Amino acid sequence: MHIARQREDFHLKTAHKLVKEYDLIAEEYLHIKGLARNTKLSKSIYDVAWGAFIEKLNAVAVKRGVHIIKVNPNHTSHSLQ
To answer: Per residue in 22-34, is it b (16+ CB within 10 Å) or e — as a string?
Structure first.
């Protein structure tokens, strides 16, 4: 339970920080269950609770009037040249 509370606290603090700093937040639309099922990182994906963070971020953004858009993850990891 201690780790779960720490994770939730981190998620909430990070969500509030992002919402405070930005008027628009773009988040990649990721199929988390599919990623976890098909990669060697599945335990890590579930451990960091990506889905829970996205839910908290969306809730905080709605409360503060910040817009969140979902973007296609294709080509979002390429470095800019």
So the answer is: eeebebeeeeeee
List C-alpha distances in Å: 71 to 27, 65, 68.
6, 19, 10
The ranges of the chain with pLDDT < 50 are 79-81
pLDDT digits (tens, 9 = 90+) for 15-27: 999 999 999 999 8
C-beta neighbour count of 65 within 10 angstroms: 8
Radius of gyration of the chain (CA): 14
SS3 per residue for the chain? CHHHHHHHHHHHHHHHHHHHHCCEEEEECCCHHHHHHHCCCHHHHHHHCHHHHHHHHHHHHHHHCCEEEEECCCCCCCCCC
Check if the beta carbon of residue 71 is closer than 8 Å to that of residue 28: yes
Q: Tokens for 37?
A: 């099922």
